[in-house]
Write the structure tokens for this entry.
Amino acid sequence: MDASHTHRHHPVFCTVVPPHLLDKAALSEDSRRADLAQRTLERDSLLRTRRRVTAVRGIVPALAAPTSDDPDRTVYDAQHRTRLPGAKVRGEGDPLSKDATVNRAYAGLGATYELFLKGFGRRSIDDSGLPLDATVHYGEEYNNAFWDGQQMVFGDGDGDLFLDFTVSVDVIGHELTHGVTQYTANLTYRGQSGALNESMSDVFGSLIKQYSLEQTAEDADWLIGAGLLGPNVTGVALRSMKAPGTAYDDDELGKDPQPATMDDYVNTHSDNGGVHINSGIPNHAFYIVATELGGKAWERAGRIWYDTLTGGDLTPRANFADFARLSTAAAVTRYGAGGAEHQALQKAWSAVGVPLAG
């Protein structure tokens, strides 16, 4: 992909905690919870607007020739302010920091880089060795993490509803995968294409966690953000790919609204047409493919998803049916017709109610 093509890409502002969760928390009778959720929503709204403006101006890093297979990581400390990137606290190859949050961010950047390189031959986010930058300790008790089109940013959480956002390596992988999508299919962040964008991040975020833990598809928990919910929340994670809709059921945050099949598809104007909600459907399809094939999910199921995302036929406004058709074709191209991979794809998309024809 040449640089001129990349400059037509519009990086979007993507948070790991969806607006519907924070909207619920902002209605809490607990004034501190409500205030912190409202502050996070307001900050996210400001950042989203800023990202839209810079996207229109076309400010996207230019592609360069990859120089090595090694990552180039830098972690910054915002020191509880909101100016980015903050003070540099750890560069590539530097010794461990005394700050565990810095070390988790650094390790998460490395785990993401390694899966994409070892699993798919991709050199960083843009496949040209893009430096990986992350800022920790963003804002005061900021309840989110995000990719802003150029770097990762992590809040500390409030210690009540959410913990430090570097605790889940899949959250780090999720956000960085938004960058991979930005440089490849560039899926429009609205409706079904937006839900696919979110799902790509959940899929590869989960694979990064499985790769770093050396887990098989059977061993994996298939949760996104396990360990992120605070001690006062009734739930286990932000999302479940194995059983969408079951990740949490909490008095303050409500019940996980994700559907597992098209029968329960949510039509909504909020959250860019439910991008964080309806992503449960393609998420579940991937889970079915991965567990049908067994073994290490990044080796076959992940390869098919990567081929589909980067193959050039997935358009920015693709819907679920487009992805189902193209992923099935990718399975046939790589592994042949009628084999276990082809059958797993057919079974998965049928199970979640997405048609393969038309």
Remarks:
- The longest strand covers residues 73-77.
- Residues 1-9, 53-62 have pLDDT under 50 and may be disordered.
- The radius of gyration is 19 Å.
